[in-house]
Automatic annotation (TrEMBL):
This is Protein-export membrane protein SecG. GO terms for cellular component: plasma membrane. It is found in: Cell membrane. The keyword Membrane applies. The lineage of its organism: Bacteria, Bacillati, Bacillota, Bacilli, Lactobacillales. Its main location: membrane. InterPro entries: SecG. One of its GO terms (molecular function) is protein-transporting ATPase activity. Pfam families: SecG. NCBIfam families: secG (TIGR00810).
Amino acid sequence: MYNFLMTCILIVSVLIIIAVMMQPAKTNDALSALSGGADDLFAKQKPRGFEAFMQKVTVVLGVIFFALAMALVYLSSH
């Protein structure tokens, strides 16, 4: 069971990396990244389409990763 959960957590880890890399960039230039994007503070818009989908996928994969990590901790302590 431990080996199965370890394999699952490795697969989910790779999927999280892919999901994060596929998300579109939020900054337009290097100056915005250095200044913290203060000019866009009040220009926030709700993500739509592909960006919203990728955010949801990332959150779901994060929850699955956390649950698998807790299961591995439980199994390794008993």
